[in-house]
């Protein structure tokens, strides 16, 4: 059996998808990954076959910097970073305006490249990142069955009454201006209509007989997998989803890191893990406030600074572990708590190890994810631009001392996610799925 994984050239997307693929490899099956060159080393580390496929202008090998991006993408990235400094509505509006270039890059040419990959690989099953719209457009146009993996919060696939890019819920401490929200909703509706028109135009060129979409953002694969714990998802929204399977989490194995292991072995004192992911680590000003707050709490910290300017963090305790990149899964397995931007990998990996979270969301589905963490009692959320050092300190102290019922529920969730990992759930779901014959 051959499994084909289609992923954008972004480490944060490829890592969970490749982790799912390890179940096929361990079962003795062939695994091929179609992605770009920036993440080639990740494919090699997993021991998979790589086929070149460029799904967008940008890339992210693990830590992203604007100066490393191609012309046009560099300015877009700087624009996004600047928008995050102006608040959540400004950030979401910037992302909505840039959506066509972000999510459906050169759709017809890319779709034809995807079909060429399928013709070359001849896969039995195909797993595609939900946000790889040009790839999914190709599969729909050519009548190829595939498994669609939503790697973010499930709201990345809008259901009745929702529009892509507009959070269906907000964390408790967020109170956006109603007028600004109305304008954001109008913008997201307009972008959705424009995006759908572009999808249908490309679809008609690829397959003139194809049925046009009513909402391209609501399109999904024949089999839908959600890389998210169902325990965090609101039951009322779950009922609105198309047939699906919650994977829980796709926690990867990490190679041994001697420096990190030495740091872990050096003390039994609790520590807080801090990371804003590969994009938002650029917000050194917020990381600096978090670091100062943790010093006032008097707890050790392991901080992945990513692309942040190290000098902006000031002088940090020598007992802390501070590097550009840290093995997140390894550290979360022993952390007492974590401070995060609320990305899907960070949230699901923390839940797998029963780690309470302070979420400082900046963009996209991070707001819905933060609201879910608060709703189930597994952490708190603060506005990263407005949160003071004192507010961060108080929130960290609060999540370090969860009420007994919340602590038990979080521990039970972690045990469940570790007992049946996402890759096992994915393998079972996909293996029982009978794909259609592809139309070359």
TrEMBL record:
SUPFAM superfamilies: UDP-Glycosyltransferase/glycogen phosphorylase
Pfam families: UDPGT
Molecular function GO terms recorded: UDP-glycosyltransferase activity
Source taxon at top rank: Bacteria
Keywords on record: Glycosyltransferase, Transferase
Entry-linked InterPro entries: Glycosyltransferase_28, UDP_glucos_trans, UDP_glycos_trans_CS
Family stated for the protein in its record: Belongs to the UDP-glycosyltransferase family.
Name of the protein in its database record: MGT family glycosyltransferase
Organism: Glaciihabitans tibetensis
């Amino acid at each position: 059996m051959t499994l084909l994984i289609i992923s954008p050239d972004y480490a944060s997307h490829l890592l969970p998808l490749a982790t799912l693929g390890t179940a096929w490899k361990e079962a003795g099956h062939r695994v091929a990954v179609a992605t770009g060159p920036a993440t080639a080393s990740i494919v090699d580390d997993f021991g998979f076959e790589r086929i070149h496929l460029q799904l967008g202008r940008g890339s992210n090998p693990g830590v992203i910097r604007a100066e490393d991006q191609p012309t046009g993408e560099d300015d877009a990235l700087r624009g996004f970073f600047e928008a995050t400094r102006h608040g959540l509505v400004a950030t979401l509006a910037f992302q909505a305006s840039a959506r066509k270039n972000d999510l459906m890059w050169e759709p017809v040419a890319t779709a034809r490249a995807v079909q060429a990959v399928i013709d070359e690989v001849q896969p039995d099953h195909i797993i595609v990142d939900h946000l790889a719209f040009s790839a999914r457009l190709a599969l729909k146009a050519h009548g190829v069955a595939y498994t669609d993996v939503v790697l973010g919060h499930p709201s990345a696939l809008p259901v009745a009454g929702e529009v892509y890019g507009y959070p269906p819920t907000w964390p408790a401490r967020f109170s956006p201006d109603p007028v600004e929200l109305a304008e954001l909703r109008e913008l997201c509706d307009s972008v959705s209509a424009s995006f759908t028109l572009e999808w249908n135009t490309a679809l008609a060129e690829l397959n003139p007989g194809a049925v046009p979409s009513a909402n391209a953002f609501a399109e999904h694969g024949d089999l839908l997998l959600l890389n998210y714990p169902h325990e965090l998802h609101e039951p009322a929204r779950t009922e609105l989803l198309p047939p699906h399977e919650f994977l829980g989490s796709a926690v990867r194995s990490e190679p041994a890191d001697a420096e990190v292991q030495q740091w872990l072995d050096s003390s039994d004192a609790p520590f807080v893990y801090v990371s804003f992911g590969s994009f938002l680590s650029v917000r050194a000003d917020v990381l600096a406030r978090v670091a100062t707050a943790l010093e006032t709490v008097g707890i050790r910290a392991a901080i992945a600074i990513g692309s942040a300017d190290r000098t902006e963090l000031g002088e940090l305790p020598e007992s802390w572990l501070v590097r550009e990149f840290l093995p997140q899964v390894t550290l979360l397995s022993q952390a007492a708590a974590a401070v995060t931007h609320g990305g899907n990998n960070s949230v699901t990996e923390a839940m797998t190890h029963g780690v309470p979270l302070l979420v400082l969301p900046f963009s996209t589905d991070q707001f819905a994810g933060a609201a879910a963490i608060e709703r189930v009692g597994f952490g708190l959320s603060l506005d990263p631009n407005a949160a003071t050092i004192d507010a961060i300190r108080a929130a960290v102290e609060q999540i370090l001392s969860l009420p007994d019922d919340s602590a038990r529920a979080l521990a039970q969730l972690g045990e469940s996610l570790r007992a049946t990992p996402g890759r096992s759930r994915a393998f079972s779901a996909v293996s029982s799925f009978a794909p259609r014959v592809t139309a070359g």
